Amino acid sequence: MKQKPIHAAMQPYLEGKVLLLNKPLKWTSFDAVKKIRVVTGVAKVGHAGTLDPLATGLLIICTGKFTKKINEYMGMEKEYTGSFTLGAETATYDLESEPVNFKSLEHLTPEIIRAATQQFTGNIMQVPPVHSAIKKDGKRYYEMARKGQEVFAEPRPVTISEFEITHIGIPVVDFRVVCTTGTYIRSLAYDFGNALGTGGYLSKLCRTRIGQFFLGNSVLPQEFETSIIQLKALSEGHTNT
Question: Where are the domains of the chain?
Answer without folding.
Answer: 8-75+212-240, 78-210
